[in-house]
Amino acid sequence: MKIYHRHFWLLALTGIFFSHFSNAKADVRMPAIFGDHMVLQEKAKLPVWGWASPGEKITVTFKNQKKTTTTAADGKWRVDLDKVDSSSESGTLTVTGDNTITFTDVLVGDVWVASGQSNMEFGIQTDSRGKEAITNATDSQIRFFFVPWATALQPQTNISTIVPPSPLNGKWVVCSPEVIGANWAWHGFSAIGYYFAKERRRITGRPMGMIATYKGGTPAQAWTSISGLKKDAALDHYVDEHHRRVDNYTNARAIYSKEHADYEIKMKEWNKAKAAGQVMPEKSAPKEPTRPEGGYGAPANLFNGMVSPLIPYAIKGVIWYQGESNGDNMREAEEYPILFTRLIQDWREKWAQGNFPFLFVQLPNFNAPSKTPSEGRWPLVREAQLKALSLPNTGMAVTIDIGDADNIHPPDKLYVGQRLALVARHVAYGEDLVYSGPIYNSMTIDGNKIRINFSNIGGGLRLGTPPPTATGEALATPTELTGFAIAGMNQKFVWAKAILDGSTVVVFSDAIQQPLAVRYDWGQNPSGDLYNMEGLPASPFRTDDWSPEASQQ
Q1: Which of 128, 184, 282, 525 meets the CB 3.0–4.6 Å disulfide criterion with 365?
Q2: Which domains are delineated in the chain?
Q3: Half-sphere exposure of 206 (CA within 13 A, CB side)
Q4: What is the pTM of this model?
């Protein structure tokens, strides 16, 4: 499966910014995540940091606070402002040393990081409801920050200083139709990130700051630090790969220099032919050589270049949409339960802000409708995401009913953003409400039947359909449950009948007289229609732990 990607003229970052300072006087400097129009996290310790001359006195003022520190010998300084309540009235943050930096129009509210691969990157301009969304994007209390794409072999202390292709990249911007309708990122800010922010604003009225750090076609190992990957022996192969790239960097850079020069020549010729009217399919375009540090898919490269520079900026939590790339092959799909939980723990460890909320999207339905009861690799990734709910303060938005069989980038992101916002209401803000569809809890075998018990049933179980599309299309409610499969000793699943019985589902098949296991929606594009009364779909699940080779048809 090929994930959407584009050529992007950013060079790789390979060193740590500001790692050494001379004894000469240096102006106070701040990382790019601080800027005019930024949002600071309410009711949280607020780290403010930067660089200056060793021994230089630094004073930070905001609202009624004034904090002072002295720059360390390595040129680094940091102060932690006390907790501040949310406010729609903007303030000014001032940092003074031998020079003064002033940040204006600063709000205090909620700050969320939106990260992952292309479905999180998918811009509001491309969304099926995008035109209306852009027209109505008039809330100046929503602020965006887009982290320019960058890779690095070592953790960076600031985002890329290379001039990005859009003046809106790498700085805080105020939400407006002009801003999100402008040509930046992948057709504007993340549609999911925008819908999430809009829904949170509707519910709380607090200012919202959305920090976007995402890149299409990228695997989870690229978003995890090397020190984080080292904490599980099953991920040692990624650590080894990283060390090989570090050791071979000088040689790889020399090779890349020549290959990239050849690529540019071929690319000019290709563009020239295209401009002359020749039919030039995108697939025929010259392929850019892999960067010497390994590119966007190499272990830790995106954490180093696009996450590390944000730390320790105070945040409320993370929304995450990723897993497609790790579902491209069986090894990574089977490994994902370890890798994904390690990524979540790694970010929390590095931010040192406790177990902040980490909310994620379970992979949607995709590809041709499932023909057999148990097939594909994506079910393993979905199961890994389901298992990650065992970590504290995590939440999952099930999207198995709102994907697109023919498009790995479903164009209607409204429900994804709203479901994430609903999960946030419970996980991040402590509201007592139904925030999830049915989740498998336990099973009991009774003769030739298996009874399935669920949590998160809300007002009860029911048959349901996906929400209406952007064009208003709605499906008729089904008359019987589908998507269930059952298996016996031979571990071969067959389609099963399923009946609602109060808060449980009874599953059986005439072909299986001694059943041992049940699976639901275990395919790339399954047909299940189990919901709770609140209209939230059940997560795919299995009651067994059999190997994929043994149980797939």
Answers
A1: 525
A2: 39-114+135-149+160-214 (2.60.40.1930), 226-282+289-299 (no CATH), 323-551 (2.60.40.1220)
A3: 23
A4: 0.93
